[in-house]
Specification:
single chain; 451 residues; mainly alpha; 23 helices; 0% strand
Amino acid sequence: MNFQESKRAIRKQREIRERGANIGGGVGRFLEDILNRSEYILDSLRNTEDGRKNEEVIRDLAQELNIGKKNLQKSFKDGLRYNLKAAYRSGIISEYSSYEEIQDIITSYTLSFRSALKALVVDKKRKNREITPVQALEIAKRVYILSPKILREMRKKFPEVDDYIIKRVAVHYTSDPESFINQVLQKTQELKQKFPEFDDYIIKHAAVSYPSNPESFIYQVLQKTQELKQKFPEFDDYIIKHAAVSYPSNPESFIYQVLQKTQELKQKFPEVNDYIIKHAVFGYFSKPESFIKQVLQKIQELKQKFPDVNEGIIKRAVVYNPSDPESFINQTLQKIEELKQKFPEVNDYIIKHAAVDYPSNPESFINQVLQKTQELKQKFPEVNDYIIKHAAVDYPSNPESFINQTLQKIEELKQKFPEVNDYIIKHAVIDYSSDPENFIKNWINNKKDVK
């Protein structure tokens, strides 16, 4: 296929997209005939040089996105039917269309399907934009209504919107994703004013996933969160909230599974940080062991490559940016130096945390932490600075609750381990919050071994 033919095919697909035909409903006799004819035409195209080349490229792109062969074939055929229905209902083809006219529609769709996968692979490699196989196929097979580069276009138009929202909207609100995002942004602001104590991600989840009645969902989450806190007092707030938000029909079952899996992984990987184990359980629930092993291997490789870099940054890079951790490390180091010059009075821990966990706007996070730290010092004058900073940095949505829980836990552990000094107890409660007692017991045992 030469350049002019490719341009014509792209224009044809754009025309189908711009017509915006509704493909819902049944299939009449004439359209059914076109769909049946298209199968024979597609088989003929596959036997041409261009057809074989397109199939090979699409197959390679699918492998890059971890898309299975059967799912790829099914989605391609489904998308072709969507495209032909859209072309028929918009009047671009009819029951009288020739072999060549239907072939043009198939070719236009094939190139657009390929272009959609290519854009997703490029974003994944160059910009660390991860996407699931299901999301990739849902976008690629809907090129009759979505631009092949829909995610890139939406990110450019809505740079302040979280990526998971853009992907969800592109997959589930294909008829007018931009309009839906504008509604979400407006509703999010209204909900923030109505529920100022709620975390942003809960507000956003309500606006995106329950657009008809987000308030009702938030009230349910609030009620369920309180119930779960009483039932599972030893669990971190974010696990409780995640269960209530993401598993509203049966959050208890999810928590029990998390608890069981977390304990198994701690025994299997006692040297691994809690947050890595938790991330493995949450993000890779079906194969957390495999994820942890990959993380440990990559950490060792990066330690050799970046011997002067803080291990915490390396771990964060591997866990949260697995596709290109080196790029994340270099960007983070550069940002840390910039922030040190801009905030010379700020503790390195806060600077690094801002650069690593709030890369889009670390300055804003630092200013919030500084303001919140002063407020907390006035409210808790007897509390250690380290606890105050940790609360402001790691629990920005509700640091007061964290401080009260920490103080209570410290007192309980002091009574349980009177021979252990305060520093170890505080360190256990703050840095090993999921199981501080186990940390203290290990510390006591290690101390005995040294003696």
